[in-house]
Amino acid sequence: MNTKEAEKTKVLVINGPNLNLLGTREPEVYGSQTLVDVQQQLISLSQPYNLEVDFVQSNAEAELIEAIHEARNAVDFIIINPAAYAHTSIALRDALAAVSIPFFEVHISNIYRREKFRHFSYLADIASATLSGFGTYGYSLAMLAIINQLPRN
Ligand code: DQA
């Protein structure tokens, strides 16, 4: 009997600046769920599968970049809400391109219905997919897309 367990698929969920305030921050735009609520949902969604899910949130661009570098050769998929850095950060784009990890870009709000400066994302054209405007359910949709790609036995 082969007792060796199949290696887990590793998912890193990254949240950028101000998302630590989710739940209290502009609830009319971002809803009432906290980041902890979102994380719990992702954990329960991933539970039946052979997935390991880790979470990082930082308000600092450099810390987000470090987290992406650390994911290199260690993580299979990234789900990232880059927050405002989507619209400003070539450095974050370069980090994601450098590690070659497939990633899903999530925006809670529909960035295309908002101010013009939010319509452009430096990450969008290198993302596997972008989920924008689904509320916090966008994170779950990204996780479902990953689950859909898992090897079946
Ligand atoms: C956001 C949209 C960004 O424009 C904004 O700067 C955020 C959150 C979203 O989840 O809708 O901080 O990424």
Q: Can you put this structure into words, describing what you see?
A:
This protein is α/β, with parallel strands linked by helices and 153 residues long. It contains five helices and five strands; from the N terminus they run E-H-H-E-H-E-H-E-E-H. The chain has a five-stranded parallel sheet with strand order 2-1-3-4-5, sandwiched between helices. The longest helix has 12 residues, at 35-46. The chain is globular. The mean pLDDT is 95. Residues 18, 81, 83-84, 86, 107-109, 111, 118 line the site of 1,3,4-trihydroxy-5-OXO-cyclohexanecarboxylic acid (DQA).
Provide tags for this entry.
five-stranded parallel sheet; about 150 residues; about 30% helix; alpha/beta; binds 1,3,4-trihydroxy-5-OXO-cyclohexanecarboxylic acid
What structural class do helix, strand and pairing data support?
Answer: alpha/beta
Q: What order do the SSEs take from the amino end to the carboxyl end, as H and E? A: EHHEHEHEEH
Residue windows where pLDDT falls under 50 for at least 5 positions: none
- Hetero compounds: 1,3,4-trihydroxy-5-OXO-cyclohexanecarboxylic acid
Secondary structure layout plus pairing:
Elements: E1 9-15, H1 27-30, H2 35-46, E2 51-57, H3 61-71, E3 77-81, H4 90-99, E4 103-107, E5 129-132, H5 137-148
Parallel strand pairs: 1-2, 1-3, 3-4, 4-5
Helix pairs in contact: 2-5, 3-4
The structure holds 1,3,4-trihydroxy-5-OXO-cyclohexanecarboxylic acid.
